[in-house]
Design goal:
Elements lengths: L28 H11 L4 E4 L6 H9 L7 E4 L3 H14 L5 E6 L4 H13 L4 E7 L22 H6 L6 E4 L5 H15 L3 E6 L26 H16 L5 E4 L2 H4 L3 H11 L3 E3 L14 E4 L9 H7 L3 E4 L20 E5 L2 E4 L4 E3 L3 H8 L8 H9 L17 H11 L4 E5 L3 H7 L8 E3 L9 H12 L4 E7 H7 L3 H6 L5 E6 L4 H6 L12 H9 L5 E6 L2 H12 L6 E7 L7 H14 L7
Parallel strand pairs: 1-2, 1-3, 3-4, 4-6, 5-6, 7-8, 7-10, 8-9, 10-11, 14-15, 14-16, 16-17, 17-19, 18-19
Antiparallel strand pairs: 11-12, 12-13
Helix pairs in contact: 1-2, 1-6, 3-4, 3-15, 7-11, 9-11
EC number: 4.1.1.1
Protein name: pyruvate decarboxylase
Catalytic activity: a 2-oxocarboxylate + H(+) = an aldehyde + CO2
């Protein structure tokens, strides 16, 4: 029968025919997906409903108990994906998941997915897609750009995910879903799964009630290359007079943090971290000397690293931010660079198919004890002083704020640092054993921390999350505080109100860096609306800050605590001033001559 233009599709379009083989009613595509997510630890799925994913959400929610997931409804798709990012971080680089609708949802989430890709986080982005019968029909659907082409969203995700699955039939749905999730785990990168909206509730024999558990073949080092790399590295370091170790952010994806500490214990070298690796190395280690960040390093750290005659960097990322505008005083011929699967010594040789964890573990047995560089550090080190005390009624200074934040930290805390001046102030915090620490340095998307805080707190029930967020960044993603309230989280948010985009001011100032001031505590009270537990305070002096912290850590310890800290617009860290000027200079380089 012919169908008129613009007519209602035939009834056969509603769903594909049920498979001939009998399958239990719980053996549906959606419930299989829920079981797989639960199996890999993504027990919370951050969602925004839309007409293409509603049946999928029904099926995800229907799977309960030990094999089920919870749906955490978010205010928008960008924040849902940021929350999946934070959830993955809290689980040590485990899986986080979000579920959104076709194109308008997916393309909203894609910015956060790109950030997860840059940070090597296995985020599963699930999209409710078009009806399976619409593929190849030449129909134009809503939530598209008005062309009979459903691949726009897919093509956008291809560059920011390591695997893309478009599930529009039941026969290979099981394989596609399993392949996508296992690839995310193996590559530690995001994946994209699009599921046709008419498929999630249909039973199929391939979706057995108890699917075979995932088993991923472990990656192995090439033993000959491993032995050669260790021999060459040991010879290189054992002849050095004052070698040092520096940990980088890719230690997490390599699962090499423990091996790095074992190496540090064995060799006696001083231990530093790159800024984006803060939190990956225990700062209570006896030879920890702080953050190596070029001109804005922890005091006395850069002097030791840059004066060394050999340095081993484990998992570094040298970009314009981490190198302070490419101004690090390092020499390649002195460096051993250990990447997740490759070791390069000086200008060469290089050894491939060598896993970082295996290399560091083996190297620990081959190095001679050498504490010379650490002894030099002890000779020059001067303990940091305390900030000047505040006078009664004196406007609150940022250094006073962070003195009090430092006193709050314990092994049951986790710090989330938003892009901006909080990067630099939080780097100065001394993390107690067990204290978590996260920030997004490679991608640097302002607003990331609000959604990430939601996700981190949802995963890390044993920690109280402390988020340091600037007013400009908060305005990008503020509404997710309402989701924190809805889920009973007891996060402490310090909203640092200095009237604009401070980090941008230091890179390149202009009137566009000044933002409209909000009544931030009033906004959070509006989110609260009498539902859930909430405490807000607006502080302008140290006395007011002390009173707010007394409440947040005492009678309001089970509440979400939102403390707006009003500081002067010029109260920025000296590290940001230095970093901003150098990054600005790097950005302002004239074109190379043709």
């Amino acid at each position: 029968m012919d169908t008129a233009i613009g007519s209602i599709p035939a009834a056969t379009d509603a769903a594909p025919p049920a498979p001939s083989s009998s399958a239990p009613k719980e053996a549906t595509l959606g419930r299989h997906l829920a079981r797989r997510l639960a199996e890999v630890g993504a027990r919370d799925v951050f969602t925004v409903p839309g007409d293409f994913n509603l049946t999928l959400l029904d099926e995800l929610e229907a799977e309960t108990g030990s094999t089920g997931v919870r749906l955490v409804g978010c205010c928008n798709e960008l924040n849902a994906a940021y929350a999946a990012d934070g959830y993955a971080r809290a689980r040590g680089g485990g899986v986080g998941a979000c579920a959104v609708t076709f194109t308008v949802g997916g393309l909203s989430a894609i910015n956060a997915v790109a950030g997860a890709f840059s940070e090597n986080l296995p985020v599963v982005c699930i999209v409710g897609g078009p009806n399976s019968n619409d593929y190849g029909s030449n129909r134009i659907l809503h939530h598209t750009i008005g062309l009979p082409d459903f691949t726009q969203e897919l093509r956008c995700f291809q560059t920011v995910t390591c695997y893309q699955a478009v599930v529009n039939n039941l026969e290979d749905a099981h394989e596609q879903i399993d392949t996508a999730i296992s690839t995310a785990i193996r590559e530690s990168k995001p994946v994209y799964i699009s599921i046709s909206c008419n498929l999630p509730s249909i039973p199929h024999p391939t979706f057995s009630r108890h699917p075979v558990p995932f088993f991923l073949s472990p990656r192995l080092s090439n033993q000959m290359n491993l032995e050669a790399a260790v021999e060459a590295a040991a010879a290189f370091l054992n002849k050095a007079v004052k070698p040092v170790l520096v940990g980088g952010p890719k230690m997490r994806v390599s699962k090499a943090c423990k091996a790095f500490v074992e190496l540090a214990d064995a060799c006696g070298y001083p231990v530093a971290v790159m800024p984006s690796a803060k939190g990956l190395v225990p700062e209570h280690h006896s030879r920890f000397i702080g953050t190596y960040w070029g001109a804005v390093s922890t005091p006395f750290c850069a002097e030791i690293v840059e004066s060394a005659d050999a340095y081993l960097f484990a998992g570094p990322i040298f970009n314009d931010y981490s190198s302070v505008g490419y101004s690090l005083l390092l020499k390649k011929e002195k460096a051993i660079i250990v990447q997740p699967e490759r070791v390069v010594i000086g200008h060469g040789p290089a050894f491939g198919c060598v896993l970082m964890k295996d290399f560091l573990h083996a190297l620990a047995t081959r190095l001679k004890k050498n504490t010379a560089a650490y002894e030099n550090y002890r000779r020059i080190y001067v303990p940091p002083g305390e900030p000047l005390s505040s006078e009664p009624g004196e406007p609150l200074r940022v250094n006073i704020l962070f003195k009090h934040i430092q006193a709050m930290l314990s092994g049951n805390s986790a710090i989330i640092a938003e892009t901006g001046d909080s990067w630099f102030n939080c780097q100065k915090l001394k993390l107690p054993e067990g204290c978590g620490y996260e920030f997004q340095m490679q991608y640097g998307s302002i607003g990331w921390s609000v959604g990430a805080t939601l996700g981190y707190a949802q995963a890390a029930k044993d920690k109280r999350v402390i988020a340091c967020i600037g007013d400009g960044s908060f305005q990008v993603t503020a509404q997710e505080v309402s989701t924190m309230l809805r889920w009973g989280q007891n996060t402490i948010i310090f909203l640092i109100n200095n009237g604009g985009y401070t980090i941008e001011v230091e890179i390149h100032d202009g009137p566009y860096n000044v933002i409209k001031n909000w009544n931030y505590t009033g906004l959070v009270e509006a989110f609260h609306n009498g539902e859930g537990k909430c405490y807000t305070a607006k502080v302008r002096t140290e006395e007011e800050l002390k009173e707010a912290l007394k409440e947040a850590l005492g009678p309001k310890k089970d509440c979400l605590c939102f403390i707006e800290v009003i500081v002067h617009k010029d109260d920025t860290s000296k590290e940001l001033l230095e970093w901003g000027s150098r990054v600005s200079a790097a950005n302002s380089r004239p074109p190379n001559p043709q």
